Amino acid sequence: MSNDNDMGDGTADDVSHSSVDAPPLSGFAGLGLRSELLEALDALGYEEPTPIQRETIPTLLTGADLLGQAATGTGKTAAFALPALQTIEPGAPMGGPSVLVLVPTRELAVQVSEAMVKYGKQLHARVVPVFGGQPIGRQLGALDRGAHVVVATPGRAIDHIGRGSLLLDSIKTVILDEADEMLDMGFTDDIESILESTPEDRQTVLFSATMPPRINAIAKRYQRDPVKIKIGKLEERESQELIRQTVYFVRRADKPDALGRVLDIETPDAALVFCRTRMEVDQLTSTMNLRGYRAEALHGGMDQAQRDRVMGRLRDGTAELLVATDVAARGLDVDTLTHVVNYDVPSAAESYVHRIGRVGRAGREGTAITLADPRERRLLNNIERLTKQTIEVAKVPTVADLRARQVELTVTAVRESLAAPDLEDYNPVLHALAGEDSDRNIALAAIKLVHLARGAVLDEREIPDASDNRTERSKKFKDGKGGKDRARDRGTGKRDGKREGKHAKGDRDRGGNPDTGFLYVSQGRKAGVRPGDLVGAIANESGLVGRDIGPIRISDHYSVVGVPKAEVDRVITAMRNTTMRGKPVKVRPFNE
Ligand code: ADP
Ligand code: MG
Questions:
Q1: Which residues are registered as beta bridge partners of 295?
Q2: In a domain, 458, yes or no
Q3: What is the extent of the structural domain holding 381?
Q4: Which one of 80, 155, 474, 533 has the fewest beta carbons within 10 angstroms of its own beta carbon?
Q5: Cα(268)–Cα(260) distance, integer angstroms
């Protein structure tokens, strides 16, 4: 099966069951999901199902068993979560859970629970995560109060089943997320015993990034006639040799800075920056504007007239950056476009190909830049494998690189000016200055003006390059935590704590500018706070501009933001009634 429809960003092969109907042309609406779920997705800014979502959701809604394979970052969580949430009746008396999701790690238990709470918001879905490393008492209480969905690591699930606190009689769906990883971690026996304790007429769903024989063995034993769906096969496409492809590895929090730095080095005529959601588009657009770039947003929520206006501004050079979602930028063809930036690694290799295909048209050269969080590495490997192209890993440009580039650009500008026929017209200026200083100094002063007018401001912050970071997955094994004992949830809490500690200390210090004071802001990563939120909120309330704000450090539960020392009190007063991500925030002075 390879029907490249309008969306054209994925195909499924190996579909061994014909109940997968022809996918709808666009949006989640055609997949059969109830309105409460569609509203939640809309609120999250999801515009389009990813290929794995498009292929699996209709099948899962029929109640069939499913064996799904797709790389990390392709949207598997929503693929299984949405159909699982579909049957929840808001307000119905709560018995035992009807959905059990098994995941390999504590982090995933939290992440999947958070996603399911978001997707099931309108349905008032009660989702209880259960994992090792957290006091069992708290979980006993939570389970006792009733749950629609339990998301558990296998070891802790077994504990609760043994204590009678996790009842499986009413389970209708069991989902194994990252099944390959769970088996690698030695959870096979636990998984088998859990599956054997659930009702026989359950729906069994298995999601895995890879499909080793052991997964097939589990599928054979515990699934009934599963529909197999594999996402990955890529359409043949014209060569993209004219496109230079580069990836920079940076942490998510550093992406706005990294984007600015890379743009300052690359100096595109016009660039298209792709984000995943509308919300990200709006945030990044305002962040880049605050930083002095002429950025415009383009997303699915805009009508044709608005879109035309934005496109016009990009074509005539009024705007230099267009920030867009895949859907909004579909079919977009701007011949001034020199750069495409993937602000995230796209979840499907097909969309990567489509995105970068916006440059390198009609024999022109183009550049495709990808900003990847180290966690997105596997996704990138997948893209390379499927496109049979290498994406060059480059180091994030340093402050020294930026300065060198700025000098180079000024040299070019002066050289061009020297070649201009109207040079003599400026003789009166030189004449007026003659004798006041040497010709050399006059030239230097003039060059300085050119250099600064070109926007060559000094950006002092080194952006941490994360290309040497090991991925979460390989870290786990290199630390020797692959064994069965470790895998049984124990010690995961400590690992997590260590990680948070590292974040909190942060690698974002600007080398301690003595004129910078720090603010504590009572929300962090867990609340979804991004650098753009902080810059936006502070700029809005206090009138400071983007350049005044920073460094920014976002920890799990709070953030620390630098502002000019003299402004600390004023900013705090201005932020008294501010909300961020819909919640009130507290802001107070922060001393390092
Ligand atoms: P996987 O489990 O395949 O690794 P996730 O389910 O964690 O992938 O999804 C990766 C990211 O993509 C998440 O941040 C999620 O919010 C986002 N995402 C998932 N589906 C969509 C979609 N249809 N549109 C936009 N973003 C999405
Ligand atoms: Mg996942």
A1: 321
A2: no
A3: 235-397
A4: 474
A5: 12
- Mean pLDDT over residues 500-523, rounded? 58
Residue 4 lies in a domain: no
Residues 267 and 388 in one domain: yes
Same domain, 63 and 200: yes
pTM exceeds 0.85, yes or no: no
Tokens read off for 294 = 């002429």
Q: Who's near 333: CB < 8 A, 6+ residues apart?
A: 358, 361
Q: Do 62 and 202 have their domain in common? A: yes
Q: How many domains does the chain have?
A: 4
Q: Give the ligand 1 atom nearest the CA of 74.
A: 3
- CA-proximal residue: ligand 1, atom 20 (nearest): 75
My answer on whether 33 and 159 are in the same domain is yes
**pLDDT tens for each residue of 93-121:** 777 899 999 998 887 898 899 999 999 99
The Cα 398–Cα 289 span in angstroms is 22
Same domain, yes or no: 93 and 209: yes
Q: Which residues line ligand 1 (CB under 6 A)?
A: 46, 48-50, 53, 70, 72-78, 276-277, 347
7, 31, 50, 342: residue to mutate for ligand 1 pocket, most atoms within 8 A of CB: 50
User: 386 with 418, same domain?
Assistant: no
Asked if 225 and 322 sit in the same domain, the reply is no
CB-neighbour burial class of residue 406 (10 A; exposed 0-12, middle 13-18, buried 19+): buried
- Least confident segment among 400-409, 412-421, 461-470, 566-575: 461-470
**Helices 278-290 & 255-266, crossing angle to 10 degrees?**
60
Residue whose C-alpha is closest to residue 354's, from 338, 342, 362, 364:
342
Q: In Å, what is the CA distance from 236 to each residue of 230, 365, 367, 429, 583?
A: 17, 21, 21, 61, 47
**Amino acid identity, residue 3?**
N
CA of 117 to the centre of ligand 1 (A): 14
The pLDDT of residue 489 is 35
Residue 240's pLDDT band (boundaries 50, 70, 90)?
Answer: low
Ligand nearest to the CA of residue 42, numbered in listed order? 1
